[in-house]
Design brief:
Blueprint (H helix, E strand, L loop, with lengths): L9 E7 L5 H14 L4 E3 L2 H7 L8 H20 L3 E5 L5 H14 L3 E6 L3 H7 L4 H6 L21 E3 L6 H14 L4
Parallel strand pairs: 1-3, 1-4, 2-3, 4-5
Helix pairs in contact: 1-7, 3-4
Length: about 180
Amino acid sequence: MTTTARAQGVTVWLTGLPSAGKTTIARILGTRLKAEGHRVEVLDGDEIRRFLSAGLGFSREDRNTNVQRIGLVAEVLARNGVLAVVPVIAPYADSRDAVRERHEASGTPYIEVHVATPVEVCSERDVRGLYARQAAGRLTGLTGVDDPYEPPLDPALTLETHLLTPEESADSVHAVLAARGLV
């Protein structure tokens, strides 16, 4: 019987404000990793919310439940050799810490990346019109505006996307993966 080494998986968790650039960076990184022959899944927070977390609102408890569901899926994928790239706001530090702890408990690599884009820049980008709706009084609970965002205290990488192109940001994440022997 022949055994083959299982590919090492990892979860790359991109956290930041809405319209910070998380999904754009994740897609660029995912495309590059796939081109290199890696098994990759991008678990986009907006897509997950529509399907896996349908019915959840935006209370702290519901946001925590959403993050824990995404964290479980990411950990299972990464534990099984997939590079899980996760662009999710995940506004609360304790929710992200629980995801990290799940990964540590299974011996699965976890890399937290803070997509640190100023709220003013996010508001200008306003990919989904959230900031405009909030400014017009048609939306409350917008993370970083009238709902809290707790930035990571010790991320593996901080990306100031207002100073970098999306490609440069993705390259920086790839460099961290390479430095840790994960790609």
